[in-house]
Amino acid sequence: MDKRLKFVTYGAVLLALAAVFPLLRLPQYVTGSAVNFVLIIAAYVLGVWGGVAIGCLTPWIALIAGQMPFVYMPPFIMIGNAVLVISFGILKRFKLGGMIAGIIVGALLKFAFLSFAVRYLVKAPPKLVAMMSLPQLITALIGGVLALIVIQTKLLPEEILK
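Predicted structure:
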């Protein structure tokens, strides 16, 4: 299959997966972990910029679908997602140790940025501060660990990785 066609096809499937989880109205820990899982898989399969693109689209999809009640949050979530994906993407070249470090560093930076943003940049209501703080760290770590399990156990079809 042509490399560009593969990129678009897998990108569309991963974007659809990331977009569907918020629509299921599951608890934040399930939805957030699933979306972060898809972001890490996207960075692994599509590369950093493919993962960033998906991470930038998902908050807008959640807003349009009515899952994000705060219209000012998508740009901040986009940045948080990009930080996670870029951290993973930069460090993944160092094999498993780098991927683990990328997930940990990315999760910590995403958590720090979103926590700072809701407290000091937008002065969000307490409920949003709670949603955008510790749960962001936990869901990024859970999603990252699940993605590593899939990557390391070779559960991705081999043609995706070529």
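Summary: The chain has a mean pLDDT of 91.
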